[in-house]
Specification:
The chain is α/β, with parallel strands linked by helices. Strands 1, 2, 3, 4, 5, 6, 7, 8, 9 and 10 form a 10-stranded mixed beta sheet that branches. Strand 5, helix 3 and strand 6 form a beta-alpha-beta unit.
């Protein structure tokens, strides 16, 4: 079973931070515009976010306590709208995100159908909640997320051939650790954050750092005013470069 071609596209400070005060300073504005333009030009079928980033970018906060129910929900995948043109994929292993509809409308982007990536540890109440909203979902692991399985299912159940990974740092780190990032696109802001509390471009939690660091080969380096767009391909990865 094949999987989508994965492009990690991020906006980063010179010291590798993807959040913090430096992201909104005067020198960052033009780079942010270029980052958005490149996102549109990549024209990916889906954009994938981790739980925290999805809550910040497109969800309606966290769902909170749901009404208890006595019906056991099957842990089987549900493709509510497999023929959609665009998808937002939210990795939500514990089932926490709140939504108001089955589609997301982010200003300046096409309408996108929501797909949740869950683990089997999610509550019956949350599965019923997603079904009521007619939101698609796939299961990828018992209690711990299996990123490779998630990508395989996304490629098998939906017309997703090219997927943009857009953070946060822990989600990026999980995909990089498993060798699932085919291309890395980084727009470097002409700023330094300096705050260690700001999220890094890729973060490995606990003892999850890989034995062999992810290695990439440079495709191109393009100045954008004071910013710089760096594009890399995974060094020993797939041969089927995105068209």
């Amino acid at each position: 079973m094949d999987r989508p071609y994965v492009i990690c596209h991020m906006l980063s400070t010179l010291d590798g931070r993807i959040s913090g005060r430096a992201m909104s300073c005067e020198g960052a504005r033009q780079a942010q515009k270029e980052y958005g333009r490149l996102r549109r030009e990549y024209d990916c079928d889906a954009t994938l976010y981790g739980t925290i980033t999805a809550e910040e970018v497109c969800a309606e906060g966290f769902v909170g306590k749901l009404p208890r129910m006595g019906t056991k929900q099957p842990r089987t995948d549900y493709a509510a709208q497999p023929d959609a043109d665009r998808f937002i994929v939210a990795v939500d292993a514990a089932g926490q995100l709140a939504w108001k509809d089955k589609v997301v409308e982010i200003p300046g982007r096409p309408r996108a159908h929501i797909i949740e990536v869950l683990t089997e540890s999610v509550s019956d109440e949350y599965i019923a909640y997603l079904r009521e909203l007619d939101i698609s979902y796939v299961f990828a692991g018992k209690e711990k997320l299996n990123c490779a399985l998630a990508l395989q299912k996304l490629g098998a159940l939906f017309p997703i051939r090219k997927l943009m990974l857009a953070g946060g740092g822990v989600m990026n780190g999980s995909m990089l650790r498993e060798g699932l990032v085919d291309e890395l696109s980084v727009v470097l802001l002409p700023t330094i954050e300096g705050d260690r509390r700001a999220a890094a471009l890729a973060e490995y939690t606990g003892k999850s750092a890989p034995q062999t660091p992810a290695a990439f080969s440079l495709i191109s380096a393009e100045p954008m005013g004071d910013a710089l767009w760096l594009r890399y391909r995974r060094r020993e990865g797939r041969k089927d470069e995105a068209k």
